[in-house]
Amino acid sequence: MKSTAVMFEEDPILLCLVIAILLATILAKTYSSRSNAQRDVSPDPSPSTTQLSAGKRNPGQWIPMDVKASDPPPYPDWDVKTTKPLPYRPFKYGPTYFVTMGLRKGNLDDWIELDNEYLKFHTVKKERIESRGDRLCKTAPEALDAAIELLEMLCDYLPKRYPSMFTKTSVGIDNIVTNEAFNIVRRPLAEEPMKTIGRLIQDDVAIMVEGSDGQSYLKSGSIILPGFWKLEEKFNMNLSEIHTSGDVPQFREKLEKGMVNFFKRVMPGDMVIRHNYFMQVDDGLAWSHSIGPEDSPHAGWFTAEKDKVVENHWFRSERQTLRRLPRSGGVAFTIRTYFHPVTEVAKEPYVPGRLASAIRSWGDDVAKYKGSEKYKYILLEFLDRENQKQIDSGLIAEGGESHLKYPY
After folding, report:
1. Region Disordered: what ranges (predicted)?
2. Would you list the domain boundaries of the chain?
3. Which of 11, 44, 50, 239 is 20 to 30 Å from 126 by CA-CA measure?
4. Do 356 and 328 form a contact (C-beta atoms < 8 A)?
């Protein structure tokens, strides 16, 4: 009888078959053992887990989750005097303007953005908190835990992300640059938590809390630099009422269903970002005084002066983030404003041509919402002229804008 080695040497195909059978046997045993082990250690989902899954959570109820984001690294080379605002330019070439939620997945490390305009924002916010803070910062009793949770999260995040400005203390946080110390463990707190949040960051903040009807309601806010709207008018409204009362274009048709569902399903550990932009015909960072006095019950674009010289035109954009607070279940909505003269923004390559094309792409409803009737003729004439200058000087090439990435 031939030996096994001789058989394999004379018939290599037989050798391959034997090896294949052995490998299949090993893989089958491995898979079986892993499956059994997984069944042994994975209990059936508890009722709390089921409630927390998307679509199965009881409306208005939240079971606290032990979810904590990893520590953010320090912002690279951040300096309160030299770090410039990021150049968000969230407008696209026409010819068509699409009304969408425009959500993008964000990195929790980048939750809050601070820059060399911090002290300017801080000064304006401080003055407004002291002069009219109760109208700009408020929290309903049912949202107090969410507001405190958000404050605690910021006091944990900011010293790690911006260590040259903030220091975490045993009772809260110190701002090294402004010489402010905040105690967030004493009870009652020294001030309304949303006022403290307003002093810490450049963003405005709103917290949405889900009611027993499944709708998300604005129950807490630090809306100090709103530009065009007032917290006291929107407070306690649900998500749909907020947008319909502000005549947001095509909200019912294109935005409402997706937005309402998103607020129900967003989970801790996730963050989304969106951008939008407006034009202003005044330099009011806190309030656009051209649309009327802040305390007027009838402020709107209809009061603004038409065709003001281009030096009065300002570009206002917002970077918004949304994330679920794990303990309270509220959804924190940050609104960071970037505010620049149009004459400065238009110096950037491709920007005047792209902005002019975007404005021309607005439908009648969007144009009315953004007040374009008050400024578009002067603004478009200026942007077209600046765009042609860039082409003539060789700074840009016609049709060469495809390399640009939204929202820059």
Report:
1. 34-62
2. 57-285+318-341
3. 239
4. no
- Quote the DSSP letter at residue 71: P
Instruction: Give the C-alpha distances (Å, rounded to integers) separating 28 from 17, 18, 35, 255.
Output: 17, 16, 11, 50
Could you identify the residue written with the tokens 């010293």?
159
Is 374 strand, coil or helix?
helix
DSSP characters for 305-344?
PSS--GGG-EEEEEEEEEEE-TTT--EEEEEEEEEEEHHH
Per-residue pLDDT reduced to its tens digit, 185-232: 999 999 999 999 999 999 999 999 999 999 999 999 999 999 999 999
DSSP string, 83-134: -PPP-------SS--------EE--GGGSS---TTHHHHHHHHHHHHHHHHH
Q: Which residues of 388-399 are buried (b: 16+ CB within 10 A; e: fewer)?
A: eebeeeeebeee
* DSSP codes of every residue in 6-65: HHHHH-HHHHHHHHHHHHHHHHHHHHHHHHHHHHHH-PPPPHHHHHHSTTTSPTT-----
